[in-house]
Every structure is written in structure tokens, then in C-alpha cells.
Amino acid sequence: MLRTTRKDMKMYVGNLSWDSTSEDLKELFSQYGEVSDVYVPTDRDSGRPRGFAFVTMGSKEAMEAAVKGVDGTEFQGRDLRVNEARPREDRGGGGGYRN
Predict the structure, then answer these.
(1) Which helix (H) or strand (E) holds 74?
(2) What residues have CB less than 8 Å from 56, skipping those under 6 apart?
(3) Closest CA to 16 of 46, 45, 41, 44
(4) If we measure between CA atoms, which residue out of 72, 76, 32 comes closest to residue 56?
(5) pTM to 2 decimals?
(6) At the top level of CATH, which class does the domain 7-84 belong to?
(7) What is the bridge-based pairing of β-strands 74-75 and 52-57?
(8) Residues 17-76: pLDDT tens digits?
(9) Which one of 47, 49, 60, 83 is most buried, counting C-beta atoms within 10 A?
(10) Are 10 and 85 spatial neighbours (Cβ–Cβ below 8 Å)?
(11) CA–CA distance, 72 with 74 (Å, rounded to integer)
């Protein structure tokens, strides 16, 4: 039997309004199933949202329904881009200087 992990149910949500909150996104995506987590990254200098988020659904089926139902739709004045999140790429260590 194939096991599904939480990473398999995480979506990237792009082109968000800077006014969008995690509660707004939870309400939007809960139409498609249980939302187990919403993460809205913020700019470290200004503290403002960065215009994208990650939403984790309770099941693979709910995530697939949410991608189909929300991708390309208007939300708070913006056309959202929604797809399954890809694993983070290893970008290496922090740019140290070498001689």
C-alpha cells in the first residue's frame, strides 16, 4: 500500500494579494476538504507578506480538488496560481568567500 505524506498534500499558492491572511486562505481552501496548515511567508525587513503561501490539505484527493478548483480563479483582486508544491532545492551553503 502506498503511503501519502503531508509533503504530498502541500500546495504552492502564488500571485496573492499582500492583504491575504492565513485565515483567508484557510476559508478559501476548506471548500475542498480539511486544511491542516497554512504558511504565509513574510519579508524579513518589512514584515509584509511576500505574495505567496503554502497550504497543506488533509488528503491527496482534497489537494487535487483544490488545485483544480482554485488555480486561475480570482481572489482578492488577483488571479491565483495553485499547484502541488515541489521539494525545496538544495542551494548550498551561504556564499562564503574562498581564495
Answers:
(1) strand 74-75
(2) 6, 9, 10, 11, 35, 36, 37, 38
(3) 41
(4) 32
(5) 0.81
(6) alpha beta
(7) unpaired
(8) 999 999 999 999 999 999 999 999 998 998 888 999 999 999 999 999 999 999 999 999
(9) 49
(10) yes
(11) 7
